[in-house]
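Q: Could you fold this chain for me?
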Amino acid sequence: MKIGCPKEIKPQEFRVGLTPAAAAEAVARGHQVLVETGAGLGAGFEDEDYTRAGAQIAPDAATVFAEADLVIKVKEPQAVERAMLRKGQILFTYLHLAPDEPQTRDLLKSGVTAIAYETVTDARGGLPLLAPMSEVAGRLAPQVGSWALQKANGGRGFLLGGVPGVRPANVVIIGGGVVGAAAARVAVGMGANVTVMDRSVPRLSYLDDVFMGRLTTQFASAAATAEAIRTADLVIGAVLIPGAAAPKLISREQLSTMPQGAVLVDVAIDQGGCFETSRATTHQDPIYDVDGIIHYCVANMPGAVARTSTQALGNVTMPHLLALADKGWRQAVTDDPYLRAGLSTHEGQLTSIPVGEALGIEAVTPEALLGL
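A: Sure. Below is the predicted structure, expressed as structure tokens.
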């Protein structure tokens, strides 16, 4: 099979979908690998790194899309890329379709077989291809929140950890999963006063044990959330409903109850955001002000640390990539129910029920499509 990796074109996206190590593994199994020139530069990989791994260098993205049987990326294909996809081709990348009807309809129109990283599962019910990027985004969230809290950026002028005699910032993390736990780890380490909110009492118990009382856990009822944000200097939205649009946890009306200059960091923005006032931003222009509350809603946070992110993503995508290339998509997803959970579109048919419910598009399960 010919595997193609184009350069990412989303603004300020420096990651690359294929590492030289993964390229070498694919070539060793008898596959051809085609990488667009310069695709890995943002993550610190030169074209020569890929050629040494046995890959070929393509002059442009059009060549990659025209020749590849399997296209591997990081971010969802942009409109110009979607126009180059075709029936019979496999697309393996993050998609985040639920809040993105134009992308969903373009993928259906193209006929491409699209498999979404973010809905591939594992035997424990986790999301292994999302987890490393969630870890990165979670660890970044307190850092970017601390930056946004600086007065020059419109924030309250609080140092996250305070100093002796001056209280630390109050950090509220909504969601205690992978993102929330990673964010808590960094925020606690920076000396902030941290509260983690979640609707799973077992998860809260786990976090209480892990952090040994160094943070506060609270059940995330609507009333408790509304009360917590009243004194929050930084709120990190870290909720996820796999494959579906994120729920709106803070309304615009509630912004008036928060301290002026407080910061919202929406890590769920890829799934539409968990604050009513969230809209996607870029690393180039990451923040904006709504009613005196600073919003940080960068949709590809891990792209800021592209080297770390690319290597972490490559570690978890490589086995699935090789399975798709070795077996073809149909046999690969038939053999592996966890990879099958990532199947999102095939030849004009939507195969993600949560996306169908979010967008009002008829969908079937992957099992029904495959006759399993």
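A (continued): The chain has two domains: 2-119+306-370, 131-299.
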